[in-house]
């Protein structure tokens, strides 16, 4: 039996973008978001397919400052969400 912790859902502010590597080159690799005074990267999740990655990367200036739903399993010792995923 594998025991997984439940997802915790938050709304974070998009503050920056990281270009992808490899197959994600030229599109979004990760969002840099801020929540509760902490900045962290979120790079995957349900619904974040290649089309979304291309569209967000091409129009990233309009996304800066927007809220995005993020889910994570737990916080690090410094209060940063671990295993974060973008929910679209």
Can you characterise this structure?
This protein is mainly β and 88 residues long. It is 15% helix and 43% strand. The strands form two sheets. Strands 3-2-1-4-7 form a five-stranded antiparallel beta sheet. The chain is globular, with a radius of gyration of 13 Å. The model has no long low-confidence stretch (mean pLDDT 93).
Secondary-structure element pattern, one letter each: EEEHHEEEE
Average pLDDT reading? 93
Count of helices?
A: 2
Strand order of the largest sheet: 3-2-1-4-7
Compute the separation of the termini in Å: 30 Å
Question: Tally of extended strands?
Answer: 7
Structural class: mainly beta
| Major β-sheet profile | 5 strands, antiparallel
The quaternary structure here is single chain
* CA gyration radius, whole angstroms: 13 Å
Strand content: 35-45%
Which outline best applies? Answer: globular
Low-confidence stretches: none
Helix coverage percent? 10-25%
Give a short summary of the structure.
With 88 residues, the chain is mainly beta.
Which secondary structure elements does this structure contain, and how are they paired or packed?
Layout: E1 8-19, E2 28-35, E3 38-42, H1 50-58, H2 60-63, E4 67-72, E5 74-75, E6 81-82, E7 85-87
Antiparallel strand pairs: 1-2, 1-4, 2-3, 4-7, 5-6
Give the tags:
mainly beta, two-stranded antiparallel ribbon, 88 residues, 7 strands, five-stranded antiparallel sheet
């Amino acid at each position: 039996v594998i025991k997984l912790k439940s997802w915790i859902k938050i709304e974070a502010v998009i503050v920056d973008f990281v270009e992808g590597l490899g197959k994600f080159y030229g599109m979004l690799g990760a969002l840099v978001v801020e929540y509760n005074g902490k900045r962290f990267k979120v790079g995957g999740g349900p619904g974040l397919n290649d089309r979304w990655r291309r569209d967000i990367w091409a129009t990233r200036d309009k996304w800066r400052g927007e809220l995005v739903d993020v889910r994570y399993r737990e916080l690090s010792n410094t209060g940063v969400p671990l295993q974060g995923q973008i929910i679209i």
